[in-house]
Write a structure and sequence with these properties.
binds iron/sulfur cluster; two-stranded parallel ribbon; Alpha-Beta Plaits; elongated; 9 helices; mainly alpha; two-stranded antiparallel ribbon; about 240 residues
Length: about 240
């Protein structure tokens, strides 16, 4: 019902499935029937996705958003025809980009895996209402996206501090934390989507989760050393 429901993942999945172009139509800006103004969200999502496409070598002109009312059939037809013409000029996905299927899928998978992190990092910009079309082009910049990918964080559980309270594992949205009773918890870096929930969830009195940027994650401790020593036991010893 609402263009605001269109997620970056929907667009990327379409390209992953070999679609040559994605066209999104939303209601005219400032004419939302509800209080949500989801079309502004769709606009920001589109501007952000275009930059992400650029980052992985896909031509951003393969994605377009247009705003119109239900009474503007002519505008719909004109913009769809124009978009179709543009996509025909660009040719099949990957052609002008010089990418084969493997390169396209590899790039999209890299972005998909980081989507929660990317959305959290840019949540403020994704939430604004860009009323002036002059602001659209520069809302997200190429340099900003490069910086975003260059500073992707990793999360690490300090085995000396973890008290195996299991809070982080219960809150992790993708079950990326190896959780066993009375055992130091370990983050599976392959599964982790960098959402940062474990950092917020770990009780401050333990403070066992660390955010690492630009440095390697220490290797997980061996299974035989994972049994934890409770803080109080340590103090008695
Ligand atoms: S950052 Fe923490 S909570 Fe988020 S996916 Fe990674 S391990 Fe799970
Ligand atoms: S929330 Fe903190 S102390 Fe509790 S299991 Fe996770 S890392 Fe360990």
């Amino acid at each position: 019902m609402c263009s605001g429901r269109v997620d970056i993942a929907f667009v990327l999945k379409a390209f992953m499935n070999g679609i040559d172009g994605v066209y999104i139509a939303g209601c005219r800006l400032n004419e939302c029937n509800y209080i949500t103004h989801g079309n502004y969200h769709a606009l920001n999502m589109t501007l952000f996705t275009k930059r992400l496409m650029e980052h992985i070598g896909l031509n951003p002109e393969r994605l377009r958003i247009e705003f119109m009312s239900g009474a503007e059939a002519n505008r719909f037809v004109e913009t769809v025809n124009d978009f179709t013409k543009k996509i025909r000029e660009l040719g099949p996905l990957g052609k002008v980009e010089g990418l084969d299927k493997e390169g396209i899928v590899g790039g999209i998978e890299k972005v998909m895996k980081l989507l929660p992190y990317l959305k959290i990092a840019k949540r403020e910009k994704l939430g604004v209402r860009l009323k002036d079309p002059k602001d659209w082009e520069g809302h997200f910049t190429k340099e900003e996206i490069e910086e975003l990918f260059a500073t992707v964080p990793s999360y690490y559980i300090d085995p000396e501090k973890c008290q195996a309270c299991m809070t982080c594992a219960r809150r992790c949205p993708v079950e990326a934390i190896d959780s066993k009773k009375n055992m130091v918890h370990i983050i599976n870096q392959e599964k982790c989507i960098k959402c940062g929930t474990c950092l917020d969830a770990c009780p401050p009195r333990f403070g066992a989760v660390t955010k690492l940027v630009g440095q390697p994650v220490p290797p997980p401790i061996p299974e035989e050393r994972r049994a934890i020593t409770r803080k109080r036991e340590k103090e008695v010893a």
